[in-house]
């Protein structure tokens, strides 16, 4: 459980890889959600 552990967040940062513990984008902010809400409210 540390820098050498591939399954931990620290290990993924050290290795430079991504996965469930370290997603590529922490905050998904897309402009697609606003038009869907506007269309649903009509």
UniProtKB/TrEMBL annotation:
<dbReference type="Pfam" id="PF17070">
    <property type="entry name" value="Thx"/>
</dbReference>
<comment type="similarity">
    <text>Belongs to the bacterial ribosomal protein bTHX family.</text>
</comment>
<feature type="region of interest" description="Disordered">
    <location>
        <begin position="1"/>
        <end position="42"/>
    </location>
</feature>
<keyword id="KW-0687">Ribonucleoprotein</keyword>
<feature type="compositionally biased region" description="Basic residues">
    <location>
        <begin position="1"/>
        <end position="13"/>
    </location>
</feature>
<keyword id="KW-0689">Ribosomal protein</keyword>
<dbReference type="GO" id="GO:0005840">
    <property type="term" value="C:ribosome"/>
</dbReference>
<dbReference type="InterPro" id="IPR031414">
    <property type="entry name" value="Ribosomal_bTHX"/>
</dbReference>
<dbReference type="InterPro" id="IPR030826">
    <property type="entry name" value="Ribosomal_bTHX/bTHXc/bTHXm"/>
</dbReference>
<protein>
    <submittedName>
        <fullName>30S ribosomal protein THX</fullName>
    </submittedName>
</protein>
